[in-house]
Design a protein that fits this description.
The chain is an alpha+beta fold and about 500 residues long. The protein is about 25% helix and about 20% strand. The strands form 5 sheets. Strands 11, 12, 13, 16, 17, 18 and 19 form a 7-stranded mixed beta sheet that branches.
Length: about 500
């Protein structure tokens, strides 16, 4: 498969110049009593059986009402979901015991042995109530846009899909709380831990009813952090053992003595106005794709906090075809593409002409983001080296947003957070919110819908995408988890669950 797709991609580069509920008695689960593994260094000052984490006490601890990434990162300790997604963007059952698709219904079976942390059974009614809360919550409603409804039917849960979607269960990762507690500050969950202690001294203790594999930590201390600087110093001093940083903002982050990358779904891309000549030509868009040095963008403009994107999907996605993508083409290949598009002639400065006239264009960028401005400057420099006269057009965010939505641009530097099922509709569909003036192709969109129904069809869609390049993927932003010097962990972290493999720590 890899050789076949590589051959096709190389052929495209050359050819393009010519023409994407439970038991009755509540009993503690013995799995919740596992002992600490040997050879693990004790974290912080709490000893080997206490984990110290940061919390924002000014923010809510209700998973549907919180506003900070810090508090959201704590929620997987307290609340389980039907499914959980691994770093390869593939979901597996957690509270679910299986699922099947029937037309536009996803029918999910709930494990019968589940208990909340107060010992009561987890039922389908709890899941329906939790879904309704999540659907209204600013925290989850964006990711649940393609989940039209949820109901209980014959003891199973029936979710209605907006369209056929082989990655649909990636969306069913919202927290499940006990019905009737969802509006409380501390809803009842079924996670590895439950609340302990007073409101002023928040701590977590093991949940004896959890269905999850045990953790070596008997107790989790939640220590208030007023700001990022305090979090950083607390990690360095060992007051905090482990923390997550979103890294979406422009500020530099240096958390702890050891960090690990956390893949995210924030795609930074180059938007192209196909209504303006010659960007409507696929040869020009292909040249832009090939001229972009994504490694340099990742390391320099994004300070190593982003991963190069050669497709519209995160590079860690397990179902991506095994393809060797080329970050840049030889000057001859790019020249062939641009020559075929009518940009073969140059002026005295070596800049390409279009229709015997100087061809110059601008790259619109949000001036409020220094990271984006830096990336735009680097991109324009890369294009100028190929004889394309590109200049940066920085605008305040509101003006930038208005011009993008109004189609008033040549190119623009954009960013979109894809939902967990990695839906590209907003970038590809005629009605997409991020598809302003994008070169639309019904054939490409048809291949995309085939991929949505069956992720095994990813190669066909990606090949078609790289023929047409309606937009140019640049990088996916990364998050990070950091450890204190005294904390040793083999953590595997995802954006949705930084405690993904906590039982192996």
């Amino acid at each position: 498969m890899a050789r076949r797709i590589c051959f096709i991609l190389l052929a495209l580069i050359l050819i393009a110049g010519c023409v994407p509920g439970g038991a009755q008695d509540a009993q503690p689960n013995p799995q919740g009593e596992s002992s600490a593994p040997s050879g693990v260094n004790p974290p912080g000052e709490g000893g080997g059986n206490t984990l110290s984490l940061a919390v924002d006490k000014t923010d809510s601890l209700n998973p549907f009402q919180l506003t900070t990434s810090l508090n959201k990162s704590l929620m997987p300790l307290l609340y389980d979901s039907l499914f959980r997604m691994d770093p390869g963007f593939v979901s597996s059952e957690l509270l679910a015991s299986g699922y099947r698709f029937e037309e536009l219904d996803c029918i999910v079976n709930l494990r019968p042995d589940l208990r909340f942390s107060d010992g009561s059974a987890v039922t389908a009614a709890d899941v329906v109530a939790s879904f309704n809360l999540a659907k209204l919550s600013p925290v989850y409603q964006g990711g649940l846009a393609d989940v039209l409804g949820c109901e209980e039917r014959d003891g199973a849960l029936v979710f209605r899909m907006a369209r056929s979607d082989g990655l649909f269960t990636n969306l069913l990762t919202f927290p499940i709380v006990k019905n009737g507690t969802g509006t409380q500050e501390r809803p009842v969950g079924s996670g590895r831990y439950r609340y302990s202690g007073s409101e002023n001294a928040i701590a977590l203790e093991r949940n004896p009813y959890t269905s999850r594999a045990g953790s070596r930590f008997e107790r989790v201390e939640l220590i208030a952090m007023p700001d990022t600087a305090s979090l950083t110093s607390s990690l360095r001093m060992g007051v905090i053992d482990y923390a997550y940083a979103d890294l979406t903002g422009d500020a530099e982050h240096s958390l702890g003595s050891s960090t690990k990358t956390v893949p995210k779904t924030n795609l930074v891309f180059l938007g192209i106005n196909a209504a303006r000549e010659p960007f409507g030509l696929s040869q020009v868009r292909k040249a832009l794709y090939l001229l972009t040095d994504r490694q340099a963008l990742s390391q320099r403009s994004f300070a190593g906090k982003a991963s190069p994107a050669y497709t519209p999907f995160p590079p860690t996605a397990k179902w991506l075809p095994d393809v060797e993508f080329y970050d840049s083409a030889s000057k001859n290949q790019v020249s062939e593409l641009l020559d075929a598009a009518g940009l073969s002639e140059r002026d005295g400065q070596g800049m390409r002409l279009y229709g015997e006239k100087p061809f110059s264009f601008s790259l619109l960028v949000n001036a409020d983001s220094q990271v984006k401005v830096s990336a735009a400057e680097m991109l324009c420099q890369q294009l100028r080296e190929a004889g394309l006269s590109a200049t940066v057009d920085p605008q305040p965010y509101e003006r930038y947003r208005q011009r993008v939505s109004g189609g008033d641009f040549d190119l623009y530097l954009g960013e979109i957070k894809l939902p967990d099922n990695l839906d590209l509709t907003e970038l590809l569909a005629l009605s997409g919110s991020a598809a302003s003036q994008t070169a639309y192709s019904q054939a490409l969109y048809d291949d995309y819908l085939l991929f949505r129904a069956d992720p095994e069809q990813a190669d066909q869609f990606i090949i078609r995408f790289l023929e047409q390049n309606p937009f140019i993927p640049l990088v996916f932003r990364d998050g990070a988890v950091a450890f204190s010097r005294s904390f040793s962990s083999a953590a595997v972290a995802t954006e949705g669950d930084i405690f993904y493999n906590m039982d192996e720590w």
